[in-house]
């Protein structure tokens, strides 16, 4: 689609700086740098020069150029216009090691082009020729490692040889500019002299410390032309004025940096055009799905309502025809069956297996909703695309302005993200229906749709990783490190639990609160349909799917939108990642760390292998969990344990001692203290017994609550003045209520912090028999409120209780001992009061602020980098091996 036929040219005030997008491509860039694309004859760009010119003008460019790879064939097709300057992206090489570079050349003659192509294998000859002939130029994306050879040694030589440098490239992230432009800022006469002596090269061009700084979109998909540009003085009138400014350096970069979304959309734009030109049969009219994709990419104008109706009707007629012909196919199948001696309707084993079924029992199905194979994906896509389009008016506005909707990057990504969610829910429903109907074919079709869905999203996944693949090297190349201290560090924490009543969620909320107080950059990432807590720095992603956990129906397994998480994290550019849980969000954190090339740390909050073993009683599932945990924590630069006891568990997972850190326990004494006692609290809950045992936590088997039930039954046989109060909920609650029926047991459900503190402070004993908790935050909360605690001798909680001082440590599997100890303490009021006074005194040692600073300092240590070695830079790269 030609933009010139749809859009009016934007005009700018004559007093405004003049703008030129100094780096963009046309269909003359017809050979890809990637061998895979060349193998299928896919060029880098399909943009017609006239379309490039039209889009540049529409976005307000005063002058236009095209810089195709090693050719001027594209720009010469529009060179007759007075506002067009000839350009080219010259590929040249360092002869020492074949390091590949691109230099943008402007205003050169055909003779210059031919000569530069001949001398391109030696970048020193290129630099000499460009200076000798005063050719305007700019080193393109100067710290992009095109063939993974660029080092600081090469960059310093480029600074000595060339006048112009592209500081802002619309296809590369802002990280490139942030790392490179300070290099130009610190150039002085003395610095250039130092570089000259180090490399034995004389600087070229007058005032070599003053560089021309340019910018361009590097557009290949006819999406972004004019969004990144170089600005020239307002008095710039002619092409020759532009060239002279480039020679003198009187210009500056402006506009947008690149992004992962931009890069992905460029891939889609080229892919749609490749499909239209090379895959579709000549003369073939596109179907509705192809029409939508071509329109989004700007390959064709938007279909009229009549055309949309015709395409939709055509699709419905195909469905009707399949339904009409289905009986005919069955008759033909019956005839073939009788011919081969099989009963009508019977299928051979080969027929059944070809449909993906079981030869013994194979239902005759053709997919969910009568749609099979990737048709499921296509139908879900079309339905969602049509329904959601009205929510994105910016896409329609771009189309009406003659611009491709695919170029509205943020809006298009939100559109795609919504479609992805709809498709995921649709495929999940199709899988459920296939299982319910025992449809093997439908199940395999649905699974194939998942693979197809992820294949379609591959450009996004590739882009977020590609844009960050050199993130860790950019400042190394420029010798411009960015030291991270406690104040500047950016930490992203990923967790599968934050809104639950458990120690993990409590710890994360406490750390987030402390980070806010200290002014630290700390973002907590979750994925839940309904967030309950407002936590400082929280970023929640609505899950693609939410299902009950196997063996634990009370908990939800939320599948996060991985693509949205990666795109968000790409924009945030965290320095270190913390995986707080090993679930889906923890895995997302690991992926983010891999994408950003940053360290990942984790916390061993929960003994998951023990949980799984108690819930499933299946050693295979337990062993699988152990293997997974061993792999995940081995990927981390450091792992925190909430207690010393669980360092042994981490050693059992094969982690070396130097990776292990123990977090000191901590408690928020403003929320939990003995002064919060409320004498009326029990009447509010209908508790009439004068003695109260209190439990707070998840009501589940792995908390060793069946043992507590037995102990309480035995206690009730000894005395009738004691109630057991349970705060929390979980899968064991119905069974526990039934087991304690007729006894003074009260189930309060989930309670928040404000409600919990008076319950702690008004109870007589805190009973917490868990054998799997790594710390037991509730045990500390209880003691802070003056409540003595009884804990098991297994797990981490025993480390927070001073035995026979602030509570008692008891055998985990001995209900008789628990019953006896409880009875003795309730009968010994002076002893109970001494423990109640000692408990808050001991808890006052565990400062929340100190724990946070320890937590934060370990993250700072994980990202410390050594200072650059100036002496090593002087060494030339190793010569390439001769073959």
From TrEMBL:
Domain Polymerase/histidinol phosphatase N-terminal: start-end pairs: 20-94
Gene Ontology MF terms in the entry: glycosyltransferase activity
Stored InterPro entries: Glyco_trans_1, Glyco_trans_4-like_N, Glycosyltransferase_grp1, Pol/His_phosphatase_N, Pol/histidinol_Pase-like
Domain of life: Bacteria
Region annotation Disordered: where it falls in the sequence: 1-21, 863-883
Protein name, as recorded: Polymerase/histidinol phosphatase N-terminal domain-containing protein
Organism encoding this protein: uncultured Phycisphaerae bacterium
């Amino acid at each position: 689609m030609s933009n010139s036929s749809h859009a009016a040219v934007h005009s700018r005030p004559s007093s405004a700086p003049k703008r030129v997008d100094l780096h963009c491509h046309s269909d003359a860039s017809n050979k890809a740098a990637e061998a895979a694309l060349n193998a299928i004859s896919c060029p880098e760009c399909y943009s017609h020069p006239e379309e490039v010119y039209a889009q540049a003008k529409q976005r307000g460019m005063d002058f236009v150029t095209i810089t195709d790879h090693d050719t001027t064939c594209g720009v010469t097709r529009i060179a007759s216009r007075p506002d067009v300057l000839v350009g080219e992206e010259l590929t040249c090489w360092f002869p020492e090691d074949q390091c590949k570079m691109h230099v943008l050349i402007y205003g050169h003659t055909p003779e210059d082009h031919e000569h530069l192509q001949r001398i391109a294998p030696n970048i020193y000859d290129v630099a000499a020729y460009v200076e000798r002939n005063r050719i305007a130029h700019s080193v393109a994306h100067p710290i992009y490692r095109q063939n993974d050879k660029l080092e600081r040694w090469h960059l310093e030589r480029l600074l000595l040889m060339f006048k112009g440098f592209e500081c802002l490239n619309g296809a590369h992230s802002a990280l490139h500019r942030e790392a490179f432009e300070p290099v130009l800022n610190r150039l002085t006469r003395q610095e250039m002299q130092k570089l000259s002596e180090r490399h034995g090269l004389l600087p070229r061009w007058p005032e070599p410390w003053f560089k021309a700084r340019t910018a361009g979109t590097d557009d290949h998909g006819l999406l972004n032309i004019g969004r990144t540009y170089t600005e020239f003085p307002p008095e710039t009138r002619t092409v020759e004025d532009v060239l002279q400014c480039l020679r003198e350096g009187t210009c500056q970069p402006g506009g947008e940096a690149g992004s992962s979304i931009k890069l992905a959309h460029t891939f889609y734009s080229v892919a749609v055009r490749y499909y239209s030109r090379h895959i579709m049969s000549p003369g073939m009219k596109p179907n509705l799905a192809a029409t939508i994709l071509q329109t989004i990419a700007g390959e064709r104008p938007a279909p009229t309502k009549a055309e949309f109706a015709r395409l939709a009707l055509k699709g419905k007629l195909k469905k009707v025809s399949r339904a009409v012909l289905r009986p005919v196919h069955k008759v033909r199948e019956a005839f073939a069956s009788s011919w081969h001696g099989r009963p009508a309707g019977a299928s051979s084993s080969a027929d059944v297996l070809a449909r993906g079924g079981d030869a013994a029992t194979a239902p005759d199905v053709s997919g969910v909703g009568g749609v099979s194979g990737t048709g499921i994906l296509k139908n879900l896509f079309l339905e969602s695309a049509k329904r959601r389009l009205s929510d994105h008016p910016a896409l329609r506005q771009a189309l009406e302005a003659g611009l491709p909707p695919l170029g509205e990057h943020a809006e298009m990504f939100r559109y795609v993200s919504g479609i992805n969610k709809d498709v995921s829910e649709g495929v999940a429903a199709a899988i459920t229906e296939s299982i319910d109907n025992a449809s093997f074919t439908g199940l395999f079709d649905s699974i194939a749709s998942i693979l197809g869905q992820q294949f379609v999203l591959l450009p996004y996944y590739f882009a977020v990783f590609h844009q960050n693949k050199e993130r860790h090297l950019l400042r190394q190349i420029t010798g411009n490190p960015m030291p991270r201290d406690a104040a500047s560090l950016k930490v992203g924490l990923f967790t599968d639990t934050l809104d639950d009543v458990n120690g993990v969620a409590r710890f994360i909320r406490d750390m987030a609160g402390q980070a806010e107080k200290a002014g630290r950059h700390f973002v907590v990432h979750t994925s839940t349909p309904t967030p309950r807590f407002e936590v400082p720095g929280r970023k929640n992603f609505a899950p693609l799917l939410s299902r009950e956990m196997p063996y634990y129906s009370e908990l939800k397994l939320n599948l996060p939108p991985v693509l949205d998480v990666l795109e968000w994290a790409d924009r945030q550019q965290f320095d270190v990642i913390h995986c707080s849980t090993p679930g889906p969000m923890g895995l997302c954190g690991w992926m983010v760390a891999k994408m950003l090339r940053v360290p990942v740390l984790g916390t061993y909050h929960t003994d998951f292998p023990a949980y799984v073993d108690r819930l499933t009683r299946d050693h295979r599932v337990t062993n699988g969990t152990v293997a997974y945990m061993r792999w995940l924590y081995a990927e981390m630069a450091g792992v925190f344990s909430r207690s010393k006891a669980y360092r042994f568990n981490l050693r059992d997972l094969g982690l070396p001692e130097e990776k292990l850190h123990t977090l000191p326990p901590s408690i928020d004494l403003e929320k939990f203290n003995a002064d919060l006692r409320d004498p009326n609290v029990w009447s509010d809950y209908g508790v009439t017994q004068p003695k109260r045992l209190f439990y707070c936590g998840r009501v589940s088997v792995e908390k060793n609550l069946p043992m507590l039930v037995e102990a309480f039954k035995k206690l009730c046989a000894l005395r009738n003045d004691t109630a057991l109060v349970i705060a929390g909920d979980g899968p064991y609650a119905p069974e526990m209520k039934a087991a304690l029926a007729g006894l003074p047991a009260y189930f309060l459900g989930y309670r928040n912090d404000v409600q919990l503190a008076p319950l702690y402070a008004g109870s007589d004993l805190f009973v917490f028999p868990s054998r799997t908790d790594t710390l037991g935050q509730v045990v500390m909360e209880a003691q802070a409120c003056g409540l003595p605690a009884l804990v098991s001798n297994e797990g981490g909680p025993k480390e927070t209780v001073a035995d026979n001082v602030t509570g008692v440590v008891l055998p985990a599997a001995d209900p008789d001992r628990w019953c006896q100890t409880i009875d003795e303490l309730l009968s010994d009021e002076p002893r109970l009061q001494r423990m109640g006074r000692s408990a808050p005194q001991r808890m006052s040692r565990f400062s929340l602020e100190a724990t946070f600073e320890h937590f934060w300092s370990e993250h700072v240590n994980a990202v410390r980098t050594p200072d650059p070695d100036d002496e090593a830079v002087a060494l030339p790269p190793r010569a390439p091996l001769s073959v």
